[in-house]
Amino acid sequence: MQTPTQLTSPMPYPEVCAGEPNIKYAKAMLDNIGGSNSEMSAVALHFYNQLVTSHETEISKVFRDICITEMQHLRIFGMLALQLGENPRFWTYTGQNLVYWTPGYINYPLELSNLLELSIESEREAIQKYEQQARWIADPNVIANIKRILVDERRHVQELTQLYEKYSRR
Q1: Does the reported pTM lie above 0.90?
Q2: Cα separations in angstroms, 61 against 44, 64, 76
Q3: Residues contacting residue 142 through CB under 8 Å, at least 6 positions apart
Q4: Taking the mean position of all CA atoms in its chain, how far away is CA 121?
Q5: Any idea which fold 23-167 has?
Q6: Which of 12, 111, 156, 167 is deepest in the core (most CB within 10 A)?
């Protein structure tokens, strides 16, 4: 079992066990995996941010820890997509077409305050998306996993906001 980072809630993740196949829910999980606002986008963004902030050890460590947590979320959504009836590739539906995830979804700022602002906004957009999904999905296990992931995402916003307040004044 993976050791949680300081930016992962100590609350355990629920078992990943969707009730029954449901293509509508599976498509939502695919979007959580490979859409523009997805866990793959979060992993890529925070990995990049970790690299370009390596001169600021505190910030770089936060991005590394968030990246690790987002990879756990990516795994959960991938398992749910598979259980719900979809191939968990890094893609999403646009209408009836499958569109692969692309690194073009990511903004690559170098200026620290812009980098932190974009990271905060990305986390807030994920929160909004997952809250909406938790309202219309009826599978209790899928909802439980989304709600658990929301705990981490909110924690990320809090930590990134604190960093923004501390470092943007420089």
Answers
A1: yes
A2: 15, 5, 23
A3: 18, 19, 25, 29, 80, 84
A4: 12
A5: Ferritin (1.20.1260)
A6: 156
